[in-house]
Amino acid sequence: MLPVVNRLLLGLAGVVLVCGGGAVLAAGTGLSLPSWWPWHGPRDVLLSAADRERWRDESWWWPAVIAGLAILVLLALWLLLAQLRRPRPAEILVDSGDGEGARLRGRALEEALRSEAQSLEGVRGARVRLTGRRGRPGARVGLSLEPFASPGGTLGRLTSEAVAHARESVGARTLPVEVRLKAAKHQARRVS
User: Which residues cross the membrane (predicted)?
Assistant: First the structure.
């Protein structure tokens, strides 16, 4: 969902900037503009002296301006950090042994690892997300454990079975995995 929001915000900001810049350029060159447009010539200013002094004595004006600008700065920083965030690898490069290599879809590896982790005894649910790069993948695994499950035993089976199979399937010596375990909520038993 983040890429969709990212593209939508970038597109919206681009449209606003292009339209605003085009309208200011048109006003500066003397082209006719709609009557509601605030600038009509090259000598017009963004805020007149009366507009600048109009809200000066209001107690809410400056906190509102500062809050609005702070929100804009936070949104811009959020957008910048979204650009720097690494997406999950779409493909994993697999050494097939013939010198050609192969490509494995990242989602396929995630689904295989998730289904194998979820089939372990004592696991109610599993989530898997690939990390790293195409040539050196890693994974983040979240397991929701049944109340009777042993965290140590479940973690041992996960690494010796599911993670080992994933590592073998991509032909890697190591496959760094971060595992987060949590106990699933359960209903209290009725005693009669």
Answer: 60-81
Buried b (16+ CB within 10 A) or exposed e, 93-123: bbeeeeeeeeebebeebbebbbebbbebebb
User: pLDDT class for 186, splitting at 50, 70, 90?
Assistant: low
Calpha distance 72→94 (Å, rounded): 44
Listed residue (163, 162, 167, 150) closest to 116, CA to CA? 162
| % of the chain at pLDDT higher than 90 | 26
Cα-atom radius of gyration of the chain, to the nearest Å? Answer: 28
175 class by beta-carbon count within 10 Å (0-12 exposed, 13-18 middle, 19+ buried): buried
**Contact in structure between 158 and 145 (CB atoms under 8 Å):** no
**pLDDT single digits (tens) 77-104:** 887 887 777 677 888 888 777 777 788 8
pTM, rounded to two decimals: 0.55
